[in-house]
Amino acid sequence: MILIADGGSTTCSWALLAGGLPQYFNTEGYNPYFWDTPGIAASLARQVPVDVRQAPIRSIHYYGSGVLSPAKAEVVAGALRQVWPQAEEVYVAEDLLAAARALLGQQAGFAAILGTGTNSCLYDGQRITQVIESLGYSLGDEGSGTSIGRQVLRDYLRGRLPAGLAAQLQAEYRLGDVSEVLDRLYNQPSPNRFLASFARFASEHADEPYCQEVVTRAFEALFEQIVTHYPDYQRHAFNCVGSVGYYFRDALAAVAQRHDMAVGQILREPIDALVRYHEGAARP
Where does the UniProt annotation place the signal sequence (predicted)? Predict the structure, then answer.
């Protein structure tokens, strides 16, 4: 049996391959910059279906956000070994490799993630060959849910959100005063998820000119700060996975077109394509 996981900072999608149809389930996301090994193991024990926890898993392939070094990979791998001690292979890699494999298979090209955070790369069909660092939600993550949500929240707190939208945001999120919001950002867990939650508001009000402008500005920053700095970027199609790229795909395509870059695949989640990739790899 093979267990595959694609983990973002907010949610993690799983597929168990046991010879028949894949068994899918979801847990929360486990970015090792915000989680430790005991915390991940405890969460998995609560959220993974009992039959999957007890299954004779032989191999685990986990792709996750925040897995940027061997030390961070081990944070996750240690938890996986605790939950499935019988596994002969526990492979932990960055979610960017999952995106490239899902979008491109064994073809070379450009792949990106646009979800809670942002990541991108050039891929040669086997491995990632170049990455321009997104730098996380504090310094970068242009085009991500955190970048869109940050702008919405900032404008709301500074009284710059259109009045009708401000009232709707307050009714939906029931935000306190500025000090309470800052406490939520700086003193409580997962501030990136908190910021990204406001991107959903922009999606729900996508027909509003204000929201259209915020989303377009975020994607323009993505291209100006990251995409256009890849060599000969216009030779590649823009392929991406992630909820932000998927739900704002029309705005994304318009910005890509302005930068003379064709748009390829845009997938909400890569898990189905990852299943096909690993099923193909498992065949003799």
Answer: none
Average pLDDT, the chain: 91
Domain boundaries, the chain: 2-99+271-282
Residue 32 and residue 243: Cα distance in Å, rounded? 21
Read off the pLDDT of residues 229-247 as tens digits, 9 standing for 90 and up.
Answer: 999 999 999 999 999 999 9
pLDDT tens-digit map of 35-76: 999 999 999 999 999 999 898 999 999 999 888 889 999 999
pLDDT for 189: 77
pTM of this structure: 0.81
Q: Considering only the top CATH level, what class is 2-99+271-282?
A: alpha beta
- pLDDT confidence of residue 281: 60
Q: How far apart are CA 278 and CA 18, in angstroms?
A: 12
